Amino acid sequence: MPVERLEGVHLGKTPEEIEEEVRRGVLLTSLDRAVGWARKQSMWPATFGLACCAIEMMSTGAGKYDLSRWGMELFRASPRQADLMIVAGRVSQKMAPVLRRIYDQMPEPRWVISMGVCASAGGMFTNYAIVQGVDTIVPVDVYVPGCPPKPEMLMHGILTLQEKVRTTEPFK
Amino acid sequence: MSDAPTTPTTPHAPTSVDARTGEIRQETMIINMGPQHPSTHGVLRLLMELDGETVIKCTPIIGYLHTGIEKNTEYRTWMQGVTYVTRADYLSPFFNELGYCLAVERLLGVEAPPRAQVIRVLMNELNRISSHLVWLATGGMELGAVSVMLYGFREREVLLDIFEEITGLRMNHAYIRIGGVIMDLPDEGLTKIERFLVEMPPRIDDYERLLDENPIWLERNVGVGRLSADDSLALGVTGPVLRSAGVPADVRKDAPYCGYETYDFDVPVRTEGDAYARYRLRIEEMRESMKIVRQCLDRLREPGPVMIEDPKVAWPAKLSVGPDGIGNDPAYVTHIMEESMEALIHHFKMVTQGVEVPPGEVYQAVESPRGELGFYVVSNGEHLPYRVKIRDPSFVNLQAIPAMVEGSLVADAIAAIASIDPVMGGVDR
Amino acid sequence: MPAEIVERVRARCPDTVVARGEVTAIVERDDLLETLAWLRDDADLALGFCSSVTATDWPGSDPRFWVVYEMLSIEHHHRVRVKVGLAEDDAHVPTVTPLFPTANWLERETHDFYGIVFDGHPDPRPLLLPEGWDGFPLQKTEELGGVNTRFRGAFIPPVDTRTTT
Q1: With 90 as the cut, is the pLDDT of residue A120 above it?
Q2: What is the pLDDT of residue B8?
Q3: Which chains neighbour B (Cβ–Cβ under 8 Å, 3 or more pairs)?
Q4: pTM higher than 0.90, yes or no?
Q5: Strand ranges, E, within chain C
Q6: Would you say residue B121 lies in a domain?
Q7: Is the model's pLDDT at A62 over the cut of 70?
Q8: Least Cα separation, residue B391 to chain C (angstroms)
Q9: Coil vs helix vs strand at B31
Q10: Is A62's CB within 8 Å of B90's CB?
Q11: What domain range is B209 assigned to?
Q12: CB of B91 less than 8 A from some CB of A
């Protein structure tokens, strides 16, 4: 049975997993596809810029690399109105409880992009003060490496996340 | 929230009388601004005691971005220290690198070649312009002028393009190294800078036309965050905040480094000491920086070495622009891999062990866009630093927040903090 | 720095070193406040601006901690460094915030990192480290910290024990 292969994206389900699901008869219905499309088109990020990556995130949202092309028109200040948290920058031990609290305040469905190596794995700061990867605190959907990642890299991460959202079953 | 005081700290707070019980209650409100907040310039937490909209007491709480940079430099070689130090104050990375490298060069007793010094001044002044643009953009956004944010970042993209052309990275370049700079300017770099010098002055005129006499901008900035010269000096404030109070202190003029005494530029000074004066001051500083950049470009016509000759100090690798960006020069790689065993051994030793710095201690100050950026570097003769202390201007300037903010409205507090231009990476290191 | 300025400092603090164009005066803990006040009030020195307060740690030596004050003169544009040595079991030094309010946060930071107690400090709470942090990270006897990873039976030691140098 032919397996639907997603164009240019290597996240989400592998061919084996898709075959498994097809065998169990759980393909995306058209309603699922519609919901997935709507969710990915209008994600609003919460402002969680911490350090240097925050400046690159602001550059990505500014005029030259415009994030509102993909629906991220506004960066919501209140996490209760946001559905995407881009952890941009190094998370110190003092900031970790705050990060978790902001994540908990976001309503479902919510996604996390870990931007930069400091957020993904501690970066060059393997020391007492930095949390070695925010995936020890919050579940991360997409990791974007770089120090700091260029705006194009962040955009690729966001588009990857949008593909993942589009193809995920929304009402599990 | 163990920091929060549980009883109001002022005896003159407005009181209200409970109608039922006749009990008199004081009514101040203790709120928390940050650390995650769109207007606090990064992860700064302000614990404010408010009487309505008026701030009675304001305590800044920092440390949410503490990275342990100073401890990390003690475990890496001297050259690797540049990459750590450049991420402290992330909006002015060239200044961090320059201060550190000047301090280490003083310990070593060497000086970078003249062309390297001119390039260092050039990159620093371009960085000063880009840092002031971020200040303008975020300060404007915090006060509600969102289009200023887009304009500021638009100009900054031009500058980041220049940085990427020259150093390979948009931010946190490790370009200024001990002994000089890591590679010479590419040809397109100079033409891009010249084009920038032509395009930028009309843009600054645009900002002035938009904001200088804008009634909303004036309302929000004039008289806000006033700090007198004596208070500023007592609190250790430096940079545009001190110069807006009338004290003409600038490290570039007082204790020149990198040949700054040979450049012709002015240091703008104002006397009002409020946020509007700081705004005008920084716009003028951008113009002065462009003057210095013009003079640097004139000096870069003749070629010359950009890294010191001494083999015990100089970074051995040569970089060049290849098809996929800036990387190791193929001719150099051929030389060390195939032609000369001594060069390979020397390269290996310099890259892994690095420079050996004689014991001593040095304090080097440079003028960053935020004030006096100082590096206290101690060596005990090894190839690892013993202590690198970064005296960051934002760290000391933030102590002035209570003096500026107490007694004014919450919205004025935001304008005052924006006018200090703190960068939390430098504050917390 | 002109030689007569150095001589003035040396007349007051005999233990003065000049190296690499910088003047360092080493004083005893008990003379610290008077010396700093004299450096500030003297008309030719006018060192009224405190740039930085920090410390260095030399475990195994006596004194173990050196507290370093960088003083700057706004009028005359010269600098003098003042150092105080502290023994390991007596890491106390009087605070200079009455003379220089700017030292408030600088001393809190130094305490966070080294455990040096500044007697009389108006606000001795931790500044950069979270409340309840155990230990003083920048002391040389403390580890850098790091990831102690075990993966599929392998053991990767913490980073500060596996540098190339």
Answers
A1: no
A2: 46
A3: A, C
A4: no
A5: 16-19, 22-27, 49-57, 65-72, 79-86, 92-94, 117-119, 149-151, 154-156
A6: yes
A7: yes
A8: 6
A9: strand
A10: no
A11: 70-313+355-428
A12: yes
